[in-house]
Amino acid sequence: MTKKEYVFAFEQGDGENKKLLGGKGANLCQMTQIGLPVPPGFVISTEACLAYLNQKKEGLAPDLMNQIREAMAQLEEKNRKGFGDANNPLLVSVRSGAAISMPGMMDTILNLGLNNETVKGLIKQTGNERFVYDAYRRLIQLFGSVGLGINTDSFDSIFEDIKRKHKAKDDVSLDAAALAEICDLFLGLEKKETGRPFPQDPYVQLELAVEAVFRSWMGKRAQDYRKEFDISPDMANGTAVNICTMVFGNMGDDSATGVAFTRDPGSGENRLYGEYLINAQGEDVVAGIRTPRPIRALRRQMPEIYKELENLRHTLEDYYREVQDFEFTIEKGKLYCLQTRNAKMNASAFIKTSIDMVNEGLVSEQEAILRIQPDMLAQMLHPRLDPNAKEKILAQGLPASPGAASGKVVFDADRAETKAKLGEKVILVREETKPEDIHGFFAAQGILTSRGGKTSHAAVVARSMGKPCVSGCEAIEINNLTREAIISGKSFREGDLVTIDGSTGNIYAGEVATIEPEFVEDLLVLLEWADDISELKVKANADTPEAAAKSKKYGAVGIGLCRTERMFNQPKRLPIVQEMILADTVKERKAALDRLLPFQRADFKEIFKIMGGMPVTIRLLDPPIHEFLPSAEELVDEINHLRELRKTVEGMADLPPILKLLDPELHDKYTTHLEMITRGLEELKSKHLDEPLIEAREIMLRKVRALSEINPMLGHRGVRLGITYPEIYTMQIQAILEAAAEHLKEGGQVRPEIMVPQVCTLEELKWVHGYVARIHREVEKRFNIKVPFKFGTMIEVVRACMRAGRLAELAEFFSFGTNDLTQATFSFSREDAENKFLPLYKDHGILQHNPFEVLDIKGVGRLMMITNEWARKTRPTIEIGICGEQGGHPDAIRFCHHIQMSYVSCSPLRVPIARLAAAHAKLKEKDYSLV
Ligand code: ADP
Ligand code: MG
Ligand code: MG
Description:
50% of the residues lie in helices and 16% in strands. It is built from 37 helices and 31 strands. The strands form 6 sheets. An 8-stranded mixed sheet has the order 12-22-21-14-15-16-17-13. Strands 24-25-26-27-28-29-30-31 form an 8-stranded parallel β-barrel, surrounded by 6 helices. The protein has a 5-stranded antiparallel sheet with strand order 1-2-5-3-4. It is globular and about 110 Å long. The protein binds adenosine-5'-diphosphate and magnesium ion (MG) (2 copies). Adenosine-5'-diphosphate binds next to strand 3, strand 5, helix 10, strand 9 and strand 10. Adenosine-5'-diphosphate is lined by residues 39, 93, 95, 108, 110, 244-247, 282-283, 327, 329, 338-339.
């Protein structure tokens, strides 16, 4: 059997193979191989880690240990030092590093190889006793805490005791003797805690350290992290261990250590950026023991080294073609590079550097595009909390719509509107929202609810408007009567300030500073490159002229979903809609519809105008109509209230005569007042408490009860409504086609597409198509102009998928409504699922994601594939898109590209993200596979 190679010298390891060598190890190999000053060392592979975790025996396998010894022998030779050599000791660091960098993995152990003997040798060699004991105490502590699991506090308290004893203000003022004393005490502690002395044999130190790193892969923190961020074994499996010769930044004033970036990660500016500390070891910079100095100060302090750093920066960028974040150490005037990795930056720095790097000829446009994760752009489209504001989190809900906002608390939509008109910023706080709250959404900076999931009404509407929303925050108790909310025990009255962060779900008391988004020029350039690459088109879901304008600004090539019912939800229109619903006869209903027609026509015309000839897909009325009415409970409450009040008013009318009878003097004293009150009450009664007025509410209540459905989402809605009340769809179709005709007459261009929701059979489509054909003829005749349009259907019912071939006979386009389709595929009622069992399903790994957030490719996606195949057999050129909310997410977009959909349609603010994701989908299509 050939021996498996587990150990790779930096000179020899394959730097491209991060999975085998880990990110840190692979980069150390690459840097060594391109001639950068990396201290000699080697990598123990992730395969060795996996083998170790699978073995039953304790200790490292003899074969692996042999390979390590061989590599150490080479290291001794390269450094001309001996591991454990009392006169000329070699010291190393032991560093973990998986393919993906992962907090929760084991920390680094420095100065391994020191023991009571080598300490003496090193002192003789360096003549620096203090430095050596400082290194030794660091080793003993790190080895003890990291390798043996001893609580760091025990070390820290010993350290503090000695500092006190020597009256030392800080670590640096401890002298060699004090540090030696600390070493002794640490050694004692370690023996006491583990029952074994600190290993003096360097190879035992090394073996135990490597084992500890391996085991940390399965530590709880690391496992939780992998779960949280969906890091699959495919992405990172096991951790590598890097053994690296120690270099010392703490050998005097000609030594230093620091961290730098090849460009400014805040602004993206092309200049060296970073910090350093003179006479310190690497960990000191991170630990914040002393305040580091900005890197530009090094130019004066060590001009030669600064030049070398500049060279290093260019070499790193030329090689990695990506902004780098690197660690360096200067030992007695010599520069070493200890680590490099791709820098994390904010979105605008990413974009700036991308464009710059293309202009500098460093990367291609395609590479520039691939550098940026589409979701990152969200940062640039929504206001976010100022990272410098360190406010305490008051409560947490669900991050339902991204962005941050501050404002005064209001408890209903009307108040939101009045206050906003006065120029105040408000946050609408409700248990949950309903369609009639819509004007409150327009007025508010953000929405906060105590109930409902990420797909609750509040969340969906807020997202479609691009307003921040935190939903389902159970720490909020709202008392609508007293207009007060208790949030995590703190009381908020109307007008008190809160801040919500819809990107994290966090809620803060008071006003927290936010940073406004900026749609920078650079982003436009980048997105144009993206459009040139991508095949999938990006449209927007937009219901109003304002949303249409926003869609266009963000580069949508059409409107993929215009929900007509959203137009009904405005304060002036809702009463007419209610009239239409409550109508007893067709005639009455038509009368109400006739009044709605001009509103809809005007909106459509405006949208057509804004979109300037781009396709606009308009969905006919979809939701169950009782959504436009108040709930039965509300009405019952209101009616009871009014009746009580009426009785009280009547009782008050009897008051003056009774008083006169009982106490004429008192009566005379108050006559005028009493008269005023009774007159006022009479007025109130006639205006609001009139019997017919109360009866009208009762009629509404009866109607609401009659319309109530056990399961409204599966009830009388969509095309079913359109067929049972033909006058509703007829009005809408007329409004669309007339708006188109008017706009054409005025010289504009239009491409209206009429879309029918909830269809499950061809017969339904035929039915509605009948109205369309008739009205189309009429309109063309009346306006004497040709009006182009398309007719199509939503696909959101499982039966529609199965009948795709037939539906495509009549439908010129399909649009997947993946919200309803997901609901129908899983038989999960969305709200119930999100509030009850989905969280547990996710925790237990029964489902990996909430399918209402992340498109379920295996199930819903499968249905989409079948649908497309059958539809294209009937009508090869059929246009197929997706307008469900999941459609704006990069994973869904990759899938849609893969199955050759024509477009995705998402909320206006997601359009830039989707455009970038569509380009990524094209560029990465080769390595896409359906799992
Ligand atoms: P992390 O991933 O937490 O940055 P590292 O393995 O990079 O862990 O090491 C922690 C600190 O120790 C860093 O500042 C690093 O530069 C420093 N360090 C690691 N190995 C050496 C070494 N051989 N010589 C000097 N400093 C080192
Ligand atoms: Mg590091
Ligand atoms: Mg739907």
